[in-house]
Amino acid sequence: MSQLTIRYEPAPDDDVGKLSFDVNAKSFSGTGFFWSDLSEMPDLIRSLRRYPLHEPVVGRWGYNALEGSDLVLSLRITQVDKRGLLEAIIEVADLFDLSRRLTVSLKTDYASIERLSTDLAAISAQRTGEAILAGTERVR
To answer: Under DSSP, is residue 48 helix (H, G, I), strand (E, B) or coil?
Structure first.
């Protein structure tokens, strides 16, 4: 079983905290973080709770255009078949060397996405905590 653990640690004297992605997959693992005030969480949580996912759910953190070498953390979830199989594509870059990055694809399901959205809602409300998305590594 592979997983993405999303953690939020608030900064003591600031509205911004450390949002971390910790990826543990069969073939590799990696960790990265970016600074966030969690303002994007309500939209992300709302999108995760849609059923079925007709459009991809995307969460991105980073600089400027939030793509390519500006992207530090990314989570993209799509439904890949009519049976409800979901794919989560996770990208994590080193905040201090953006050329160092990993991408992993996990097969997951709606029950795991529901748990993730519930945990993210708790993080958003309490401004601390962790959320886990479990799945199996998908070879692309």
So the answer is: helix
